[in-house]
């Protein structure tokens, strides 16, 4: 792995909604990051975001290599199946990886990404928000240490795909419209359930209204969990939460609302992994496992 650097030179690949709302502001405000540039498929989008944060803009295939040449770490805010091959390219160039979830929507692409990181001996972190937001990270760690959980229920319902709900704050993206809540918010639920209850050993899935999906999972601890996931719920039905039930009674995951702080923590964890050589629990291999579970769930839907 790279030796520790005083300032982590970081390039951002992607200039869409979440790049503007979270990734770029977090990188620009991080005291340990030199935000060296933004790459996007649309030159005008890259230029606009780069201008907002006083950094350089890149586009086109040659721009990928040009930005990789300037950075130590590549951060991604791209559709998953655009992200995966670029992440492989970045790893092959020796760049550390700060990935978005899901890493990819095919097991083959997710595996290729994880194997590229291993082959290049670079650190990787997948930005599953709840694993890095301070309150939820603490709660997850506490419940994993407590153990004794019998079952859990996760509910993650958004209204962005409900009729008439699209707006400038949460515009629709083609990949989310195609893959739905299972792939968009499913990683969030799994990123909480797996560290607390153990790996998933059995998957069942059922379609609900609109794009919603109900997952029933068995975990290696013997506990079971259910998850209700979707992006097309009525606005008054939208919301997210996780509740655990077991020997200690019931506990609900605390609320969170600061994705920028969480993303900055993910950058810190990437730097720590680079320094220590120890993989983070939410690395590219964990991202691969999420894709494997979601792909199996999708295959069971009628």
TrEMBL record:
Domain GFO/IDH/MocA-like oxidoreductase: 153-250
Every Gfo/Idh/MocA-like oxidoreductase N-terminal domain range: 8-123
Keywords from the named record: Oxidoreductase
Annotated protein name in UniProt: Gfo/Idh/MocA family protein
Organism: Streptomyces amakusaensis
């Amino acid at each position: 792995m790279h030796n520790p650097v005083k300032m982590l030179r970081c390039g951002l690949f992607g200039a869409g909604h979440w790049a503007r709302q979270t990734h770029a502001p977090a990188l620009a405000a991080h005291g340990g990051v030199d935000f060296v540039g933004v790459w996007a498929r649309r030159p005008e989008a890259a230029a606009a975001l780069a201008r907002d944060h006083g950094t350089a803009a890149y586009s086109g295939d040659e721009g990928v290599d040009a930005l990789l040449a300037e950075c130590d770490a590549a951060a991604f805010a791209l559709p998953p199946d655009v992200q995966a091959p670029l992440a492989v390219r970045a790893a092959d160039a020796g760049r550390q990886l700060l990935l978005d979830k899901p890493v990819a929507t095919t097991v083959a692409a997710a595996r290729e990404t994880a194997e590229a990181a291993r082959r290049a001996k670079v650190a990787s972190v997948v930005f599953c928000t709840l694993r890095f937001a301070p309150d939820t990270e603490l709660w997850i760690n506490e419940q994993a240490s407590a153990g004794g959980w019998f079952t859990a229920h996760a509910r993650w319902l958004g209204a962005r795909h409900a009729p008439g709900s699209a707006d400038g704050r949460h515009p629709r993206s083609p990949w989310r419209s195609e893959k739905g809540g299972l792939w968009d918010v499913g990683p969030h639920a799994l990123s909480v359930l797996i560290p607390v209850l153990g790996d998933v050993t059995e998957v069942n899935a059922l379609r609900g209204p609109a794009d919603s999906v109900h997952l029933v999972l068995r975990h290696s601890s013997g506990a079971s969990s259910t998850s209700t996931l979707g992006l097309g719920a009525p606005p008054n039905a939208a919301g997210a939460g996780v509740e655990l039930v077991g020997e200690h009674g019931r506990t609900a995951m605390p609320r969170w609302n600061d994705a920028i702080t969480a993303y900055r923590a993910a950058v810190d964890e990437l730097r720590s992994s680079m320094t220590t050589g120890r993989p983070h629990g939410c690395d590219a291999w964990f991202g691969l496992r999420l894709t494997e579970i979601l792909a199996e769930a999708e295959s069971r839907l009628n």
